[in-house]
Structure formats: C-alpha cells, structure tokens
Design goal:
Blueprint lengths: L32 H7 L4 E11 L6 E10 L7 E6 H14 L13 H6 L2 H20 L7 H8 L2 H17 L4 H21 L9 H49 L6 H77 L6 H84 L30
Antiparallel strand pairs: 1-2, 2-3
Helix pairs in contact: 8-9, 9-10
C-alpha cells in the first residue's frame, strides 16, 4: 500500500477559507502564540498513580488513585480511587453524548493480562489512562462534561450510588430486541434500494470529506506498522542489555583462567563495564517503551476514535437519506390518494398527516446530520494539528535520546580501552606465570608477549 500523502496536500483550501486539514496548520507560530497557548492550557492537571490490586483470581482487578489539581487559586486537589471499568464508563458516556467528537482513546482491555497483572503491564496501562484523562481535560467540549467532573470529584459513596443508578437506568432503557431487529431490517431495506437504484448515501456527502475519510482509513495501516517497528526497537534495546550483561559474565569467567595475568585484570574491567552499559541499555529500553512505543500505540488507537466519529456521521447521513426516501414514498401515496375518485376526505387527511410527519423527520434528521458535520469539521482540524505537534515533539525527543545514547556508549567504550590497557600493563609488572624450571635449569615461564593483550592503540 502506498504511503498516504502529506497532510498539507490534503484538501488545501485555495480560497483561504476553513477546510479540513489545511496546510496553514504547518505554519510557524506567530508572535504571541506561546502566550496564547499558555492561556489555552487546561485548568487542571490529572495524575493516575498508586496502582493497587484488589481481590484474587478471576475477580481480581487493579484500582488507581486519580489525583486532580486545579490551576485556580484556592481549589483543593481531589483524590479518588477508580478502576478500569470506571474509565470505560466515562469513555462510553462521552462517546454517546458527544456525537461527532473525537473522544480520546482508552487502552485495550486485555483478558490475558488480567490474570497475570504484571508490573510492566500495569505501568503501561496507568500511563495510558493518565493520557486519556488529560486529553479529555484539554478537549474544548469534553472538559465540561458532567460525567467527566463526576468521575474526577465524586466520593466513593457518591460514585457507588451513581454506578448503581446508571446500571438500573441502562437495564430499564434497554430497547426490546424486536425494536433492534426492525431498525436493522429497515436499514437493510434502504441498502437494498440503493443497490437496485444505483444510489449511495455517499452521493449526499461532501466530496472533500470523502477524501479525508479515505485518507484516515489508509493512515491507520501505516500507524499500526509504525507502532510495530517501534516495538521492535524497544525489544532490540532490551536484547542488547541482556546480551551485554551475559557477555560481561562470560568475560569474567574467561579471565579466571589467567588468575595472575593481564588477561584476568582486563576481563574484570570488561565485565564491570559491560554490566554498566547493559544496565544503561535496560533503562533506555524502558524509556523507549514509555516515550516512543506507547505514543505510537496511542496514535494508532486514536484512529479508532476518529473512525467512531466518522461512523456517527455515516449513521446520521443514512438516517437522513432514509427519511428522504420515506418522504418521497409518502408523497407518492398522497398523490395517488388525491387522484382516486370518491375517496373519503379522512383518507386524504391521513395521507397528508403522514407526509407532514415524514417532512418533520427529514428536518430533524437534517439538523442532526448538520450538527455532526459541523462538529467533525472542527474536530478533524483540531485532531490533525494536535497529532502533528505530538508526533513532531515525540520524534525530536527520540532523536535527542538516540544521540545522547550513542555519545554515552562511545564514552563508555573509550574509557574501557584506557582502563583495559592500564590493567594489562599493571598485570604484567612482575607478575609472570610461575612454573617449574625446565631442563638445563632454564625457566619454563611462558613468554607473556605471546599472550593476547588488549592494546589501546589498536
């Protein structure tokens, strides 16, 4: 699959008006932009910390401390305990309430990891949940959601009451299965009619939006692949750490075969330094996982959120199209009724009422669709700018970290050369390998110049 085009090439508005993914997103910040950005910073900062395992076996779960600190003077920090299912509740509430919004993504629910609850899994999940909450706090619409405030501030008792109330309402408001079946059959009938007539709901959609939709769908594949390769880099760094540590142990064992010679001293230095570099490599692997792999995974997850918003738009357009088709059908029936001689007036009035009802449905569906379109236009541009900035910052940090890593490794290995050379020279001074005299009274001590040396000049 070919790589998607650069953002600035997608739907650039030649007339200078608002558009999706405009190239102006890539202009340099204007004077005063930093001050404006500081003013636009969220009014609160959220930290997810202190994971605690609750229960055992299949019922075990991890709860987290959610700490909210407000920028307003005099506002005390709020600390609440929440578990993953509570985060999922918040995500569901936001997705259902704000159609067309790109709701920040949650980390995936892992059944396999649930039974293991390893420390690294919990750490990565805790970090992803913190990112989720802070993205909601920075969102221009979602930050004011009552559900979000309740999640952050409700006490344990208030939260338990709310969860029980929500569960009861969800069970009571669940539509009968027959209603779902009827809606599905109606949608299927609409699709079949489009196939017969050769029409498509996309014919009613904005042509520029269709290009953006195709772009985003193709972008998903490339982000998933980028995350896969980022994970490979993390594994490579972790494998290097293990290899260096194990090599140091092997070097130490090798040096023991020359207990009084220069090789032993040099191998001791090599063992120590390999362990140090291996430990540093392990730290870099952990940092890469958090600062490089995790953001790529977040980018890939966010595409799913964008697709959910696009699905809301497609559903609203389908309902609008169905309403128009129903209106046309009822108008045709009204015309037929009016053209039928001797038909009672009440039949005509009934058909006219049906047309009026269908017209109201069309207007309502159009308002709903237009609202989602307006929301998505702002959301897609906001998301594009946010993602571009985040990716740019992440790559800059990655490049700096790699450069520092290379410099540190070079310094470590260079110092090892000097230390190994010094140790070898120290080991040779007056420390021959003593053995019994050979025949004719000549010493059989081996010539140390024939033993392998670590020469710092080579």
């Amino acid at each position: 699959m070919a790589a998607p085009p650069p953002y600035e090439s997608v739907l650039a508005d030649a007339n200078g008006g608002d558009c999706l993914f405009a190239s102006s997103s890539f202009r340099q910040p204007e004077p005063g932009a930093q001050a404006m950005q500081e003013e636009a910073e969220p009014m609160l900062r959220i930290t997810v910390t202190e994971p605690a395992k609750q229960g055992e076996g299949i019922s075990a779960f991890v709860s987290f401390m959610v700490v909210t600190r407000y920028r307003e003077p005099g506002c005390p920090a709020r600390d609440v305990m929440r578990r993953y299912s509570h985060f999922a509740w918040l995500h569901e509430q936001l997705t259902a309430r704000y159609k067309g919004c790109i709701v920040p993504s949650l980390p995936e629910k892992s059944v396999a990891q649930k039974f293991q609850l390893k420390a690294d899994f919990i750490t990565m999940r805790m970090r992803a949940l913190e990112v989720f909450l802070n993205k909601v706090a920075a969102h221009p619409m979602l930050k004011d959601s009552p559900a979000f405030r309740q999640f952050l501030e409700a006490s344990d008792h208030e939260w338990s009451v709310e969860m029980a109330r929500w569960q009861a309402e969800a069970n009571a408001s669940k539509p009968p299965a027959v209603n779902g079946a009827l809606a599905w059959l109606k949608s299927l009938q609409h699709t079949a009619q489009n196939m017969v007539t050769g029409r498509s709901d996309d014919a009613l959609e904005d042509a520029e939006y269709l290009k953006v939709r195709d772009y985003i769908n193709s972008l998903e594949t490339h982000l998933v692949e980028a995350h896969r390769q980022a994970a490979r880099l993390v594994r490579k760094e972790a494998d290097l750490s293990t290899a260096l540590t194990e090599f140091g142990v092997a070097a130490e064992q090798l040096g023991k075969h020359d207990a009084d010679g220069s090789v032993h001293a040099a191998m001791d230095v090599l063992c120590a330094r390999s362990g140090q570099i291996g430990a540093a490599s392990r730290q870099r692997a952990d940092a890469l996982a958090l600062e490089f792999e995790a953001p790529f995974k977040e980018f890939a997850r966010t595409i799913k959120s964008v697709q959910v918003a696009m699905a809301d738009r497609a559903s609203a357009l389908s309902l609008y199209s169905q309403a128009k088709s129903e209106l046309e059908s009822r108008k045709a029936r009204l015309a037929k009724v009016r053209g039928t001689p001797g038909l009672k007036e009440e039949k005509i009035s009934e058909a006219e009422a049906d047309v009026a009802d269908a017209e109201q449905r069309v207007r309502s569906a159009k308002v709903s669709y237009d609202g989602i379109v307006a929301t998505m236009t702002e959301e897609l541009n906001r998301w594009q700018k946010e993602r571009a900035n985040e990716m740019r910052t992440m790559l800059q940090r990655f490049a700096r970290a790699q450069a520092m890593s290379a410099a540190e490794n070079a310094a470590q290995w260079s110092s090892l050369q000097l230390e190994a050379s010094h140790s070898a020279a120290h080991g040779m001074t007056g420390q021959g390998v003593a053995v019994a005299d050979g025949p004719h009274g000549q010493s059989s001590e081996p010539d140390m110049n024939l033993l392998p040396q670590l020469d710092a000049t080579k």
